[in-house]
Structure formats: C-alpha cells, structure tokens
Amino acid sequence: MTATPLPRVTIKDVAARAGVSKGAVSLAFNHKPGLSEATRDRIFQAARELGWAPNLTARTLAGSRVDVVGLAICRPARLLGLEPFYMEFVSGVESVLTERSCSLLLRLVRSAQEEAVVLESWWRGRQIGGAILVDFRDDDPRAAAVRRLGIPAVAVGHPSLTGGLASVWTDDATAVTEAVRYLAALGHRRIARVGGAAALGHTSIRTAAFDEAAASLKLAGAWQVATDFSGDAGARATRSLLTAAPPDRPTAIVYDNDIMAVAGLSVAAEMGLRVPADVSLLAWDDSQLCRLTRPTLSAMSHDVHGFGAEVARTLFGVIAGEGDGSHPVATPVLTPRGSTAPPGPRVSPAGV
Amino acid sequence: MTATPLPRVTIKDVAARAGVSKGAVSLAFNHKPGLSEATRDRIFQAARELGWAPNLTARTLAGSRVDVVGLAICRPARLLGLEPFYMEFVSGVESVLTERSCSLLLRLVRSAQEEAVVLESWWRGRQIGGAILVDFRDDDPRAAAVRRLGIPAVAVGHPSLTGGLASVWTDDATAVTEAVRYLAALGHRRIARVGGAAALGHTSIRTAAFDEAAASLKLAGAWQVATDFSGDAGARATRSLLTAAPPDRPTAIVYDNDIMAVAGLSVAAEMGLRVPADVSLLAWDDSQLCRLTRPTLSAMSHDVHGFGAEVARTLFGVIAGEGDGSHPVATPVLTPRGSTAPPGPRVSPAGV
DNA sequence: AGCACTCACTGAACCGGTAAAGTCGCAATT
DNA sequence: AATTGCGACTTTACCGGTTCAGTGAGTGCT
C-alpha cells in the first residue's frame, strides 16, 4: 500500500504554531505535568486549528503503549457467520475497548498453529498490546507461545485448559448439570446431548459433566454425540438419535449451541415427532433465534456481550500488570420456553 | 498499555550477525535489487536464527505502506450478532487480506457520524491504509469525510448511494423484481415485503423496485413495511400483515433478511396458517438458517463471502491507484425451497 | 593504461513521536 | 550574597525501520 499524498500535519507544525518545542506539545497531549495552563491552552488551540492528532504509529514506536488488541478466531468461516456467539462476543469486547480508545485487530485463521504464528507476528511487529485467545483445545500451542513471547493475554475458557494464562470462563460443568437435572425433574430418564467439536476443551468439560450428572441421577439412558457446531451436523445427530424405537430413543436432547437446536427442531418435525410432547429440546448460547422458532426454544442463556466486556476488562488488568488470575463469570442459567416439557404419553410417530 | 520487557531483536542485530548494514537487511526483506544472492541468503539465515521479523510499526512510520484495513460497522450490537451476513462478509474480506498479510481493524460504532470520526482518527494516526464502508444511508457523511481526507476507500452499495467512491454492489433492484415476478408467476396477486431500516440506502432501492414491479405486474395488493432487521420486528410486521381477513391479506411475503423470515415462519404457525399453503415466505441473504427451518425457506441467495472478497480486492485496487469505479457483483439468485408455492385454495385459519 | 559504468553495499538522514536529561529565571532559604 | 529548589520549557537521544546519496571494487571498452 502506498501512502496517499496528503499534507500531513505533524507535531512540529503544532509546536511551531504554538511557539513551543515538540516536547511541550507531547507533554500537553499526554496530560503530563510541567506546563503552565496558558501554554497548554495555546498548544491545544494550535492543534485544533491545524486539525492535528498524534500519530499513533510514531507514538507506539517511541515505546509506550499499543492501543490495539488482537483477536484471532479459529473456526471455519461459514460457521462463524452463523453462530451469533462471536459477533456478540466481539461487540462486548469492543464496548470496553472503545472506552479506552482502543481498537480490535481481527483475523480468522484455520488452525491454532496458524493463530500462534499470527499472534507472534503481531507482537513482534508491535501491532498489538495484548491478545484475546478463544476456543482452547487439547494440547493447545497458544498458551506456551504467548508465555514465551510475554504477550499480555487473556484466555477464554476454564483455567484447567488455558495453561496458566489469565482466564475468563463460565462454569459449564455446573450449567450442564443444571440442564440435566432440570430435564430429569421434568421426568425425563433418557437424555441425549449433541455436543460441539470434540477437540475443544470446553466440549470435554461439558461431556464429562454430562456423564457425571447422568450417573448421579441414574438415568435410564444417556447419549452424547460430537459435532462441528454446524446446523447440518446438528440435524444429522438429531436424526440418528431419534430414529431409535421409543424405548431406546431419548425423550430430551441438549444442544451445545442454538443453531443445532434449531436444526433439531426441524428434524423432529420432519420425523413427525412433536416438540415438546414427544421430545424436549434444550439449546445453549441463547440468542434471539431461540425466541423465533415455533415452539420457542428453552435454552441455557448467558450474557455473551457482558462476557466479552469482562474479557476485555481482564485483559486491561493483565496489561497493567495486575497479574494473571481466574475470572469466573455468571453461570449460564436455564430459560425455560416452549421446547421442554414432561415426557408425554407414548405416541407413535404416525399417530400425530 | 505499557510495554513488556522483552529482549526485542531488531534489524540492527540481524545486520550485525550477517555482517552487513541495516540498509542491506532492509533491501533483502523488501525484495529489492542491489544485493548478491549470497548476501541475501546470509541475511535471511541470520534473521531466521534470531527469529526476527520487521517491526511493522517502524516500517509504517518510515513512510511506505500501512498493512491494515479499517472497517467500522454501525448497527446495534445485538443485531449484528444475529445477522449471519456480517461475519460472513468479514470472513470474505479476511480471505483476501490474509493473502497480502494485511489485517482488519474492526470497530462497532453507533452512528455514521461516529464512524466518520473513527475513520479520521485511524487515518490521521496512520493506523489504516484504507477503509471499507458499509450500510450507506441517506445523507451519509462518510463519503465526504473520506474524500476530504483522501482515504482510499471502497463503499459497499449502489453507486447512486456512495457519493462517487469506488463501490461494490449487488443489483438489488433486479433481484427484488425477480422475487416479485417469481411469486407472481406462482399465482400470487397480493404480495407484501418486510423491508429493512428505512434510512438505509439499499432499503430505498429495494422499496422502489418492489413498487415498480408491483405496478408493472398489476398486482391486486402490495404492501411494504420498514423494520430494523431484527427478528422481533419481523415477527411484528408479519403479524400485522397476516391479521387482515383473507381478501386483504397477502398470500406471499418477501423479507429483507433471513432472520425476519424465520420469525415470519413462526408467526404464521402461531396464527394457524400453513406455509406455503396459506402464505408463501421468501427470505433474503440466504444462510444455513434457511435450510434448518421447517418448511425450509426459499431465499434470494448470494455469495456473501465472495462479495467480501471482491470488496477487499477492489480496495487494494483503489490503494494501488487504479481509480474508483463501480464493481457490480452477481445478482442474488432465487433459491426455491419449501416456503413458496402457488397460493392454495382459501382455508380459514381455524380449519387447519 | 585510462576511462566510464555497473554492481554491491554503506552511512546518514528521516518518519513523528516519547522520555530523560539539561537549561534558565526566579523565589525562598541560610 | 551565595546556595538551593523548583517550575516551565528545551534539547537531544532514541524507537526500528526505509531511502537515497555516496563509495569502492570489478569489468568492459578503446
């Protein structure tokens, strides 16, 4: 990219116009002591007249802060578009960044390795002052890379996954347990879970919690399927779960996101099963979508926007050297809607 | 943000290790002539050994390119999360940026004014080498601001809206016409359109096209409602359209995005109307969502990812000084699915 | 041999700021 | 009167690259 010929006004011009040195202008614009009110005013006046704002690039180079936070997301693009989670998360992050006039550098990558490379080059190139890491998986190379380079970072995920980085997380284990307990309390004894990508750390946590809850409640049947979070995968998983004959068929299904739950709803309809009479469905990551279906989808909801904001705040803490730590945020809570109910009297699909 | 103490390796270290001057290293890394193969190799070797990569900040300051593209999006956060469009668009943009090792600077803003301010400060601060502008509205201040500052930019939207900036656009007028013609061909004579935000330029274009198509086809009834693109608004609009008694009720509804169409589907169900027997629904911005509902949603689909990619390519063209211009991309095409059919024999809602 | 010319590379200026050390006038202290 | 201290600036040295005007060795030509 070549620069465009624009008569750029620099600190020197402002200094000249205000009749002071560059240093004085710098002091004024960084609100540092050592200038009289009068001079300060003259400087701001001059800057305003010239329409000058400090060049962030130069400022960064000169050694102080970097007003940019990096976020690399590693998921197939097509999926990202669909999952309301990320945009909402980003918007939460933004809301805090904006307060501090920081910006977000975004990159979609294809693997955790690639992400580590991107982060490193951003850091080396002094492009970012900190980073946000999401979607931790088993054997994740990122924590080590970030540590080695000394990049201030905050990880989204349970501390057990994030290799000692500052972490912000929701208590998914408890939430899964709550979801299962709720369905059991409604009378369901055969419950399935359509989970996300198996390699993802939080999927493992949810899977383990589901097993444990199923065991402790002595459910008659418990199934788990791993998917890639896509609607198609959710549909496939649902179809395979529901094709079993009634005694071996789950009467309730928990999904790891809302897209898959929507897909599940369709599959049930297509198979002639009524929701919630024949099968109850429970979504995760409650978004507007859950209220737009018929029946509406019960969901484990949490405040994704607020979550993003908390992540950003934590990052600023880390950058300020306030140390790493674990920051749990509110556990997703159950929002019952129309897709969950006690299991109905057995009705054959054809009988609808 | 304070810098972390990291023994940063700079061009000087590389130069020393390779036994050359800083200038030579610079030449090598920019693939400029004036170095022997042997020296070049030694330099790269030294850089590899030290794990050095040029500091982009310094590089930018030194005057050449800026490897970052700015994108400020102005829509309510909650909505953004829901609309698959943006993430997919962004991913398309990214795919091209990545090829050129560029990054995307993202910011969510609340108004076009604020966006203009953000763009200006990015530009002044030398943070971006170009910008992408979306969602043009009537009386948009951004084109003027961008022109005044000389920011290389590409606008997403019909040339009539984008104030002379290079623009990339889909022919929405034709697409709307096609949608209406298709419904009319199925036998619909009373067609409604649930549009997006009235202030948005492309909404006006679609509105005008719809009117024109309705007139030229001599439809018996044509309605248009403006919304804010949210599912709730789509539901409200649909409800109000469908509460009319059959002769005054549309038999087909076109939506400006897919979320509203999904909402419309629910409302129809809730009112006891069958889709498509009693009312046909047609979505826009076809995403995976349209295939997850029951019935599946017919939609005007276009390749949003490819659209984003084209926008990025165009921006690089503008930056390279290849001049502004209008870049139409493929018109959305109709993808018929299960939600559209000839209007059925009149059935009273209660009769379902 | 002498001259012009290219090639490979160096050195220094510069980009636009920041930060630490230095200068200077003036009031308070001794 | 000399010393100290301090507030208000200025000077200067970077930050880590790019760029461009040299420089000196080597080659080709006459």
Explain this structure to me?
The structure is a homodimer of 352-residue chains. With 352 residues, chain A is an alpha/beta fold. The first copy, chain A, has 3 domains: 44 residues, 434 Repressor (Amino-terminal Domain) (Orthogonal Bundle), CATH 1.10.260.40; 132 residues, Rossmann fold (3-Layer(aba) Sandwich); 147 residues, Rossmann fold (3-Layer(aba) Sandwich). Chain A is built from 13 helices and 12 strands. In chain A, the strands form 2 sheets. Chain A has a 6-stranded parallel sheet with strand order 2-1-3-4-5-11, sandwiched between helices. In chain A, strands 7-6-8-9-10-12 form a 6-stranded mixed sheet, with helices on both faces. In chain A, strand 6, helix 10 and strand 7 form a beta-alpha-beta unit. Chain A is elongated. The first copy, chain A, binds a DNA duplex (30 and 30 nucleotides) through helix 2 and helix 4.
Draw up the topology in text.
Two copies of one chain form a homodimer.
Chain A: H1 11-18, H2 22-29, H3 37-50, H4 56-61, E1 68-74, H5 77-82, H6 84-99, E2 103-109, H7 112-124, E3 130-133, H8 142-149, E4 153-156, E5 166-170, H9 172-185, E6 190-195, H10 201-216, E7 221-226, H11 231-242, E8 252-255, H12 258-270, E9 280-284, E10 298-301, H13 304-319, E11 326-329, E12 333-335
Parallel strand pairs in A: 1-2, 1-3, 3-4, 4-5, 5-11, 6-7, 6-8, 8-9, 9-10
Antiparallel strand pairs in A: 10-12
The first copy, chain A, binds a DNA duplex (30 and 30 nucleotides) through residues 8, 10-12, 20-27, 30, 32-36, 39, 54-64, 126.
